[in-house]
Backbone:
């Protein structure tokens, strides 16, 4: 599923944390290096540093910022180092391209899996499906992976495929502007400027938390934080805590913090349909088998993939009878109190909003120190929250589990086309792109996990790899044809989006009786892909030059293609 908070499959509770004595996700494959010893030790030293948010000065020169004022020319500039950014970088290296940079605003790779460290954070997509197809992980410890394991997996990929030397950490993009005369993107960061032939935004939609504008919030004297920016230094024990929101993150961390706090007040605007969680521990024997017989894990992955593809049929036809029966039975079984059950039962069709999975959220809400409030919040006072019925509840801390700025991505206001208009201004509240990837008016620009690439039934990594294939094909065509610019034709983009919107009509997401974050501020579903993921992969398998305006290159830049030894193979 796709939503609060994953790159894009969001973390969901997996019921356990990896043990301290577990092997790293890549097993023992790095134990016998074949490269020169000095190089291996340098990489291992860097790897140890990358397990912590260290100061940038400790990183090797390739990852240190340029001197102030210097502009560096690169073939490709990738923004973000989550699944999308790392996957795109690996694809470039496999194609023999090393003239690229990955700009990361934080001090580590991982995207949403780096940022979301709240208690109980895990994925709601089966582990075997939540990895790159070219890099399966035989050492997942659970059928639904906890956040620390996914983060370690992404670090491993960055090291194994030699992406780390291309990453510049603590380099948030302040602006990116297309220079038509130079046929390049001019990218500004706090420490350096870059001139890039191609710009790839791989920031994802789950990178910037959304905090509601509540009157008086600034006056609150206690602790306030969002679940995606969890304050681990704040001790919740014995505190009166208000949780605002009941989405994918809240149903994970509420059961974890409930035993610690003196009082937990859960402010619920709209209840969610919750299904039983089929999570379990993967045994040491299973992990050993997957390490020994990788084909068996790939077969398991394929079975899970095709099984979950069938889920989308109910969403598309707005026929969720079986899912409704399961969710209602789960609610009845876990919540015997009819009044609380009434509060927790949604009045919209299952699937209209994000479907959640949990076995311990409902039980946590029935503990003596928990209150579920369905009235809205009128205001926040220095030491209390006042609900719409006038009741005042004193609290020591407020935790927001209110999701992300999905359809109003802040990065869109920093990317400008040739005439100065931003991507956000171009979209006017309703993001649109061709294949969720290219935007008319923005030459040599690609979006990873752009509009209408989100999913409600399976792994977002599958969509990411499809887009990587498509963008890689576009870049290869640019190199081979000597092109300086490619820009999707406006009529092609318009026709594609008209088709997508037409197919969304009648789906449960558009007609299930709710107002979800799938819909943008104009009421348009600019988030979800309305079909099977294999159909999206078919459409993105080949780059079609006829869909684009093609302009010749005005210089001899070969878009970063290097000469000499290929680095497409992973590190030993």
Residues:
């Amino acid at each position: 599923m796709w939503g609060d908070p994953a790159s894009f499959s969001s973390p969901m509770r997996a019921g356990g944390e990896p043990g301290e004595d577990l092997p790293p996700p890549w097993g023992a494959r790095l134990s016998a290096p074949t490269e020169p010893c000095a190089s291996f030790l340098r990489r291992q030293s860097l790897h140890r540093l990358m397990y912590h948010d260290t100061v940038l000065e400790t990183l090797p020169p390739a990852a240190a910022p340029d001197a102030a004022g210097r502009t560096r020319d690169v073939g490709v500039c990738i923004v973000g180092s989550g699944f999308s950014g790392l996957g795109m970088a690996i694809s470039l290296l496999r194609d023999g391209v090393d003239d690229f940079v990955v700009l990361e605003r934080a001090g580590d790779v991982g995207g949403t899996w780096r940022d979301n460290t709240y208690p109980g954070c895990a994925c709601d997509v089966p582990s075997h499906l939540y990895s790159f197809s070219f890099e399966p992980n035989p050492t997942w410890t659970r059928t639904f992976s906890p956040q620390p394991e996914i983060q370690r997996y992404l670090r491993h990929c960055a090291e194994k495929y030699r992406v780390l030397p291309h990453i510049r950490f603590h380099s948030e993009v302040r602006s990116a502007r297309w220079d038509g005369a130079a046929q390049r993107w001019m990218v500004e960061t706090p420490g350096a400027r870059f001139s890039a032939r191609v710009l790839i935004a791989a920031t994802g939609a789950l990178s910037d938390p959304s905090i509601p504008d509540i009157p008086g919030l600034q006056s609150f004297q206690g602790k306030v934080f969002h679940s995606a920016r969890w304050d681990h230094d704040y001790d919740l024990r014995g505190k009166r805590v208000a949780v605002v929101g009941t989405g994918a993150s809240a149903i994970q961390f509420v059961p974890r913090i409930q035993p610690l706090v003196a009082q937990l007040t859960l402010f619920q605007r709209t209840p969610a349909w919750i299904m039983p969680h089929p999570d379990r521990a993967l045994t040491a024997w299973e992990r050993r088998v997957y390490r020994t017989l990788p084909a068996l894990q790939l077969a398991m992955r394929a079975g899970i993939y095709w099984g979950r593809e069938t889920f989308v049929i109910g969403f598309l036809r707005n026929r969720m009878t079986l899912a409704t029966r399961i969710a209602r039975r789960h609610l009845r079984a876990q919540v015997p109190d009819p009044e609380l059950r009434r509060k927790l039962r949604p009045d919209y069709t299952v699937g209209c909003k994000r479907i959640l999975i949990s076995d311990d959220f409902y039980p946590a809400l029935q503990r003596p120190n928990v209150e579920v409030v369905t009235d809205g919040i009128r205001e926040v006072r220095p030491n209390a929250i006042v609900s719409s019925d006038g009741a005042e509840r004193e609290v020591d801390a407020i935790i927001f589990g209110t999701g992300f700025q999905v359809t109003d991505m802040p990065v869109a206001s920093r990317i400008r086309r040739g005439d100065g208009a931003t991507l956000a201004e171009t979209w006017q509240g309703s993001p649109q792109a061709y294949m969720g990837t290219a935007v008319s008016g923005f030459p040599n620009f690609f979006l990873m996990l752009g509009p209408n690439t989100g999913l409600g039934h399976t792994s977002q990594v599958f969509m990411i790899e499809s887009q990587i294939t498509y963008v890689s094909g576009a870049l290869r065509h640019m190199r081979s044809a000597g092109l300086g610019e490619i820009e999707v034709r406006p009529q092609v983009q318009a026709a594609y989006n008209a088709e997508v919107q037409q197919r969304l009509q009648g789906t449960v997401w558009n007609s299930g009786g709710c107002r979800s974050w799938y819909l943008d501020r104009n009421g348009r579903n600019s988030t979800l892909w309305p079909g099977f993921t294999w159909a999206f992969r078919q459409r993105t398998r080949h780059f079609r030059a006829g869909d684009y305006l093609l302009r010749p290159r005005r210089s001899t830049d070969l878009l970063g293609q290097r000469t000499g030894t290929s680095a497409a193979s992973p590190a030993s």
